[in-house]
Amino acid sequence: MTLATKARPPGAYLDHAATTPMRREAVAAMLPHLEERFANPSGLHAASRAARRALDEARDGLSASLGCEPGEVVLTSGGTESDNLAVLGVAGRRGGTVVVSAVEHRAVLRPAASVGARVVPVGADGRIDVAALAALLDPGVSLVSVMLVNSEVGVVQPVGDVVAAVRRLAPGALVHCDAVQGVLWCDVAALTAGCDLVSVSAHKFGGPKGVGALVVRDRAAGALTPLLTGGGQERELRAGTENVAGAVAMAAAARLTVAERRTTVARVGALRDQFVDGVLAGAPGAAEPAPRALRVAGSAHLRFPGVDAEELLFLLDAEGVAASTGSACASGARDPSHVLLAMGWAPAEARQAVRFTLGPTTTLEEVEYATRAVLGALGRLGARNQLGD
Amino acid sequence: MRVLVAMSGGVDSSVAASLLHEQGHEVVGATLKLWSGAGDSGCCSVADVADARRVADQLGIDHHVFNFTEEFETSVVGPYVAAHAAGRTPNPCVECNRHLKFRRLLDRALRLGFDAVATGHHARVDHDASGRPQLLRGADAAKDQSYVLSVLGAGELERLLLPVGVLTKAEVRAAAAERGLHTAAKPDSQDVCFVASRTSGAGRASFLAERIELHPGRVVDARSGAPLGTVEAVELVTVGQRRGLGIASGGRPGARSYALAVDVASRTVLVGAEDELLTEAVRLAERTWVHEALPPGTEVLVQASAHGRARPAALDGDGVRFVAPERRVAPGQLVACYRGDAVVGSGVAC
């Protein structure tokens, strides 16, 4: 039996927080390292030296984009591994108490829960409650982990305030920032300058899946125990033959992303505003629960009272519009978002929220198409709701 | 027609989707996420969803996962636990069909623009002489599932397709194998999905013990009142049960002892001989009718468990009256009423 393919309507891809298409430059940068320059960088011959040089240059480039020293970049398999290494690495080497915000990605929350972490609440706007954090800090705290940009509602966290509170009240603690959702939209180098550990993932900014990095500042290097041991790569913090092609592509994507960030933010922010305003104007009752001013330019997070988000997404999918509720589990089912619950939403309200995330490649045509598709689907659900009653 | 097929990841619903697709319907598959048990990743069986998705890919149809965990908890698990706490013997699969598969899912399907819902149940939907929809037993008597669908009314049957009901289980497996479906050789599923994931036997007790307090009970001779033994959990005793009643020497000489009644309030199980288990009638609550209510006196066949024997009876004012005395039906069990092969209605034994 053959796999059938099906013609799709034009559509719109509004799920960039899930992943982004690879930049052409990043694809071009990685291909030679999959083909002729394939050698293992740890070897003793000329081909290996070439691979090592490519890896070193990628590390240089990435460190410039992230505002750290090349030696502080630990290459990983992506955001989840970086987050796990930060949390379990510090907890494993230092013990002590781990403190995380309630709206972290599960790649932080689950390892943190496994070491009995304290959880800091967030306000209704989705931002971490720094006063509540301060109340949980004491000299026994070894790690505080707070994300830069929330993956569901797009809210930028006050990482600088977090760092200041930690230095004052738990001076021995390290600060980890999961910046996976920040690279496209924020000056990660500046905003995480005070952090000891920073996670990024290439596929969130036009790089390939399966590669990421944990910035481990020199002052924190001895504070982590590795998750993977073996060949001693990555300063003994992450064994395994380096993903040279992935690292090269990640560095290329990061360099271009950072260089273009201001114009991207301005252009995509305007498209986002047009999309959100268009939907809100055509769908009375729809609301934008987290303040737009606190959110990154690509984030359009909306709640549609009386509408089951699962049904709205179904109809949008049929129209070729890709969006999300923000938290899909391995089975593909959508659970009520732990982020929205932490922001004080009732589970029934959380089931009415849809996450649209624009990206650097989003076009005006996509936004116009998606606006019509959302309003059309809402109309059909509303009409059928009434007919069904 | 646009048809939404509930695909569990098993072979029956795989073949159902395949047949409808071949008949030219516009088919979309949906797997219901019903249960997220403790100790797993918080998801339904990822493997079952993957199986459904693989089959959908083979057929070239879209596949979605619908999260009905909250409704499942409210409409199925909660009442299941409450029924046990009250000493009844609930049938969660029936409640799942009643509330989720054929109310919640059908409502959603219609909202999403579908004309009908299909499942892989072994039963048939047909039309009677006057053109009204009716639910008939499946072609494979040993696999017939009309009992668990007997709570449906004509309005739901009108929108329901059961494509494998005309096939035997062997024919379903052959059809799956012929088409190279990923699930062709997959074993049949367990009955109570949210309990079966645990080790059998002790599964139900440990599941309930996490949710309600289980109480030891006295086992008492129904006639003499003499104490005969004890059970660990009176909430787990089912009327009609013979084993596990903790009766040391078999109670009365020469008689096998059955649970005749369970009284949770006094933590007592009354036991007696088989003839004391017999009853003439079953009172029913939550009665449903496929069409209009039939008058008392109507002759029916009564089935009181998923693969139980159909027993001749007649409808009476508040339930059914057997033609000849039958073993009593455990309170909480579904009673399905048939005329011939056609379901006419149902009720829950009081």
Q: Assign the CATH class of the largest domain in chain B.
A: Alpha Beta
Provide the CATH top-level class of the largest domain in chain A. Answer: Alpha Beta
Q: How many helix segments of chain B?
A: 9
Low-confidence stretches of chain A: 1-8
Q: How many domains in all of chain B?
A: 3
Q: What is the domain tally of chain A?
A: 2
Helix content of chain A: 40-55%
Number of helical regions of chain A? 12
Shape verdict of chain B: globular
Going by CATH, the homologous superfamily of the largest domain in chain B would be HUPs
CATH topology of the largest domain in chain A: Aspartate Aminotransferase, domain 2
Quick one: how many beta strands of chain B?
17
Name the helix and strand elements of chain A from N-terminus to C-terminus, one letter apiece. Answer: EHHEHEHEHEHEHEEHEHEHHEH
Assembly classification: heterodimer
In brief:
The complex is a heterodimer of chains A (389) and B (350). By secondary structure, chain A is an alpha/beta fold. Chain A contains twelve helices and eleven strands.
Question: Secondary structure elements and their pairing?
Answer:
The complex is a heterodimer of chains A (389) and B (350).
Chain A: E1 12-13, H1 24-34, H2 46-66, E2 73-76, H3 79-94, E3 97-101, H4 106-114, E4 118-120, H5 130-136, E5 141-145, H6 159-169, E6 174-178, H7 188-191, E7 197-201, E8 212-216, H8 244-282, E9 299-303, H9 309-318, E10 321-322, H10 338-342, H11 347-350, E11 353-357, H12 364-388
Chain B: E1 2-6, H1 11-22, E2 26-33, H2 46-59, E3 62-67, H3 69-85, H4 92-111, E4 116-118, E5 123-127, E6 133-137, H5 154-157, E7 160-161, H6 169-178, H7 193-196, H8 202-209, E8 217-221, E9 227-231, E10 258-263, E11 268-272, H9 274-277, E12 278-289, E13 299-303, E14 311-316, E15 319-327, E16 334-339, E17 342-349
Parallel strand pairs in B: 1-2, 1-4, 2-3, 4-7, 8-11
Antiparallel strand pairs in B: 5-6, 8-9, 10-11, 12-15, 12-17, 13-14, 13-16, 14-15, 16-17
Helix pairs in contact in B: 1-2, 1-6, 3-4
